[in-house]
Amino acid sequence: MTAERILNGRYIVGELIGRGGMADVHLGVDQVLGRKVAIKLLRPEMARDPMVQARFRREAKAVAGLNHPNIVSVYDTGEENREINGSFVDLPFIVMEYVSGRTLRDLNRAGEITVDLAIEYVLGVLEALQHSHAMGIVHRDIKPANIMVTSQGMLKVMDFGIARALADASSTMTQTQTVVGTAQYLSPEQARGETVDARTDLYSTGCLLYELLTGRPPFTGDSPVSVAYQHVGEHAPAPSSVKTTLPPIYDDVVIKALAKDREDRYVDAHAFAEALRNARNGIPLPPEELTAVLPQEPAPATVIDYAAAEPEQPFHTGYLEPVAAEQHWNEQPMWEQDRSEPVDDYRAKSKKAWTVVLSIIMVLALAVGGLFFYNWMQAEAARNALVTVPSLTNMTQVEAESKLTELGLVPKSEDVFDDNVKSGLVVSTNPTAPAQVVKGTAVTMMVSQGPESLKIPTSLAGATEVTTRETLKELGFTIGSVTRKNDPAIPAGSLVGTEPSLGSQVKSGSKIDLVLSTGLVEVPQLFNLTEDEARALLSDPKYGLKIFVQTEEFTRVEPGTIFRQDPDSGSTSPQGGTVTVTVAKAPVVETPVPTPTPTDESDEPEESSKTPGEDPDSSDEDSEDILPGVGDLNRFGSGHGFSND
Fold first, then answer.
1. Mind listing the pLDDT tens digit for each residue in 517-535?
2. Are 453-518 and 522-589+620-636 the same fold in CATH?
3. pLDDT for 324-338, tens place per residue?
4. Known catalytic residue: 141?
5. How far apart are CA 203 and CA 192, in angstroms?
6. What pTM value is reported for the model?
7. Residue 153: which region, alpha, beta or left (left: phi > 0; alpha: psi -120 to 50)?
C-alpha cells in the first residue's frame, strides 16, 4: 500500500486533475482546515533549472497577496525535497483554491455563451485584472482555458502570475524563456519578445471577448508561428462581419482592445470595462477614442536590412522578428529609380551574398515552423481524441470524479433522489456510458441523495433527545417543535413519539415535531376501591405505580374500601412512585357488662330520685354509649368526602 504523500505536514496529495507544460496539478486535502485544495507541483525535470525554480517561487509569493472573488486564491507555498535519480531536488509547490466548474473554452465549444453572458464574463475578468494590475501583477496568459465558471455561476481567473513559469505544452509559444503566452491570445509585444505591462493583458482580454462574441479567435493559422505573425502585422475582421447577428456597436470596443500599439489601447482594465458597459447600454465609443483600422488586405512583407547591422551583433531567435515599425511608404519604388546610375560591384556582390544568407535563414525558419506545426497537429489530435464515457454507477462521487479526470473529461455533479441507490453514490451520467466524446467534455454525474420519501424509524421510541435529533438530521429531516408528555415507561427527556408518527413515510427534508417524556405519571382516582382493585389498577402499565396500604376505623364508607389517598387523584407522581391509601375498617364496639344489684327483702325500696315519667335506666353517661363511633367520624370532617350531618 502506497503511503500518503503529505506536504509541509499538512496537505495530502491526491489524484492528478490537471497537467501543464511545466507543472502537475493534484487534488489535495488541507488536514488543518479540512477542505479540498488544488496543489500545483513543479515537475522534477523542470526543477533542475534554477531560473525556473526562482521564477516559480517569486511569482507564487507575489500572487499569494491577491485577494479578489474573481481570482483563484493562493493559500500557501513551499518546497518538497524529493530524491530523483539518486540526488535530492527541491520541488516548489503552490497550494491554491480548489474550483469545481467548467472553463470558458468548454462553455464556448458547447455553444452555451450568449452575447449577454460573454459581456458579463469579460467584465468579471476585467475586474480581476484591475485588482491584479493595482498589485503589480501581470497575468500574461489570459485565455478561455484559464477562466473557470463555477457551478454557482461565479467567474474565477486561474494561473495568475504563474504563466511566466508554467506554459501550456500544447499551444504555448516559449523559447529560451523569452516569449510566453498562448499563440491565439498573444499580444504583439509578446510576439516580438518585448517587455509586457498591464495593457498586454487587455489585448489578450480583447481576443477573449472577440472569441466569446463570434465563436472563433481573431486570428487562426496552420501553426502558432503563423498566428503570432498575424498578431504582429495583420488586423482582425470586425466581429459583426464574422457574426452578422452581433450589434456593430461592439466592433469599436473590440478593435480598440486589439490595437497593435499598446498606446492606442485602453489605459487600464477599468476603462475597458466602462466602454463595454456603455456599448451594452447603446452608448458608442467617443470619436476621440476610436482606433484607426488598416485595410483588411495583408500587410506588406517586412524587409529587414541585416547588412546594415553591426557585424558583431548576434542574430537572436528567442522571439519573433518584428514587422518593421517604420514602413517606408513614401520611399521611391525600385523600378522608378534612375537606371543610368553606375552599378557598384561591391554592393552587388554583398547583396547577392546576403540573398543566399536570407534564403538559408528562410529555409531554417520554414523547417522550424514545420516542426511547430507538426507538434501542434499532434497535440490537437491528442486533445481531440475520442474518449469512451465509463460506467460510474454505484461509485462514490470522489471515485467517479477521479475516474473522469484520468480520462481527460471534466466532472460535474447534480443531486437527484433515488429509492434504490444509497445516498452519495452515482446513479447515472450524462452523456451515458459508453458514449464517445472528445477530451475535455463535461460529464454530469447524477449523485443520489437517497429516497425522496423516508420512513421515520420506529426504533427511535425511547431514544434520548440528542440521539433522535442526530438520527433525523442524518436522514435529511429538520427538527420542528418539542413538547412534553407524561409516560409511565419512557425515561424523562426521551422520545415518546413524533408528529408525523413513528413509522410513517415522510418526504425528505420535512419538519418533524418531537414529543418527549416528562418522567411523571398521572395518579388515578382510588376512592371506594378495595385494596385489591387499587393494587391492580396502579400496577397496570398505564400507570406502573406501587401501593402502600394502611387501615383506619371509619364508619361512613363500607369497610374494606379506600377513603383516603396520597398523592390525590389528578396529581402526578414520578415513574414507579408509591401511592399511600387508607382503607376503612369498622370500629370495635365494646358491650358493657351489667353489675348485679343485691336484693335485700328486709330493706325498704329506695325512692327514685327521678322525675316521674322518666326512664329509670336513662342517664347522661349512658346516652353517650348509645352512638358508638360518632367521635371518630367527627375527626375526619368534610375533607374526605363525607358530611357531619
1. 998 998 999 988 998 999 9
2. yes
3. 333 333 333 332 333
4. yes
5. 14
6. 0.46
7. left
